[in-house]
Design a protein that fits this description.
Blueprint lengths: L2 E5 L4 H12 L4 E5 L10 H4 L9 E4 L2 E4 L1 H11 L13 H34 L6 H22 L12 H5 L1 H9 L11 H11 L2 H6 L9
Parallel strand pairs: 1-2
Antiparallel strand pairs: 1-3, 3-4
Keywords: Transferase
GO molecular function, one term: glutathione transferase activity
Family: Belongs to the GST superfamily.
Length: 218
Amino acid sequence: MVLKLYGLAVATCTKRVRVVLEELQVPYELVAIDILKADHKKDDIKEHQPFGQIPWIDDDGFKLFESRAICRYIALKYGGIGKLIPDPADVQKTALFEQAASIETSNFDPPVWGLAHEKVFEPFFGRAPNPQNVEAHEKALEGRLSGYEVLLSKTRYVAGDELTLIDLFHLSYGALLKVQGYDYLESEKYPNVARWWKDVSSRPTWVKVNSVQLEPSA
């Protein structure tokens, strides 16, 4: 049975899972859950994802939700050890991987998600962004990227000198910054961030997955 990914091709967290599937060349079927029609909030969906969110997977009867957890599972099962996640026997690389995972969820995701919410998702549904929230998220992201600049001046990628899942985790929301008109990840102000971002965002797997985009309305 081919792995089934339940989500929406345009959705950020679905893209996060898809790029990992593509990197590891795992056959899968994308089963569309139309969040624009609130299908993810229906009772039968909550049998699979109790919080009414996407994505989730069904891998021959094994069901799992939360995009980062799904990606780790895929990497562990489908040949990602030594490619996208370190060998658990290498304690130091594993520790740096976990450090990078914490950096992405604690320092990168909150401001980029906040900006996407205000400047992409709200306008898409015909609502105006909150200028105070936008300003706060911009300020927070500036501070976080200063830390990334220091980190990436020492290593090629966020967890060391090898690409990992954590670099891929940045892609879906990071790409929306450009949609919003921000050049944070390509700015001369952060040359090491720009070098890293050009590397990870130009991967053919991501270019393929990101070919469908959700853009703010005019």
